[in-house]
Amino acid sequence: MPGAALCLKNVRRAFDPAAPVIHSLNLEIIAGEFLAILGPSGCGKSTLLRMLARLDTPNSGSIQMNPTAPSTAFVFQDAHLLPWRTVLDNAALPLELQNVAREERHKKAREVLAQVGLAEAEKLIPGELSGGMRMRVSLARALVTNPELLLLDEPFAALDEITRFNLEVQLRDLWRDRGMTVVFVTHSISEAAFLSNRAIVLTRRGGGIKLDRTLTLPAERTNTLRADPRLGEEMSTLLEAMEEE
Predict the structure, then answer these.
(1) Is there a single domain that holds both residue 140 and residue 155?
(2) Could you tell me the pTM of the whole model?
(3) β-strand 181-185 against 34-38: which pairing, if any?
């Protein structure tokens, strides 16, 4: 399924009228793009993601989507698994909520669990899983509906470095295989550079765009890229924008 295209025009979101979190933001996201969003704490990254998920609405301006209401999945920093349910039933939950028959939803859940390397763990419960495994279940649960738009809010922030590295490679591979649009919020410059085709840096206040960069890195990315000078150059560009006031 092709990814969703999004166009934000003069978007404003303020919880306090005197101090808007996002002020007059213009942003176009191309269908099938992997976009990373960077910026300091409080700059509006998570607020922007919630509006893209249609969990919040702007006070003014517009967010246009093609298709109009794309199938959307959201992955949070915490896996938020149901502790009494097996890995299989956690992954199948979105389909259960859509009243998909048990046999069919389990079939689809097994397919995505295999894609994230958890085919042998379907009978386990969350308490028996490592942090990386729980995040893989959360990712499988997001992918089971084959979304056109995948939104991720710092999903790997609490993981150890090696686990995070491997999940980044896996997520990038899944994106290339599926063609969905991915918007990934992170504080990590290295994560943004490694994962995305395009990265934007938001200003400290008002959610403006300080930098909008298309990254010049190979389409296929493995852990060997982490020692490549080209990745270091992209990280330096993003860091410079992050450090500017």
Answers:
(1) no
(2) 0.92
(3) parallel
Tokens of 159: 């993981």
First to last CA, the chain: 40
Report the number of distinct structural domains present in the chain: 2
Per residue in 166-218, pLDDT tens? 889 989 998 998 899 999 999 899 999 999 999 999 988 777 899 999 999 99
Among candidate residues 137, 102, 103, 142, the one with its CA nearest the CA of residue 122: 137
Range 219-244 burial, b when 16+ CB lie within 10 A, else e: eebeeeeeeeeebeebbebbeebbee
User: 76 lies in a domain?
Assistant: no
- At 198, which amino acid appears? R
The Cα–Cα gap between 74 and 155 comes to: 10
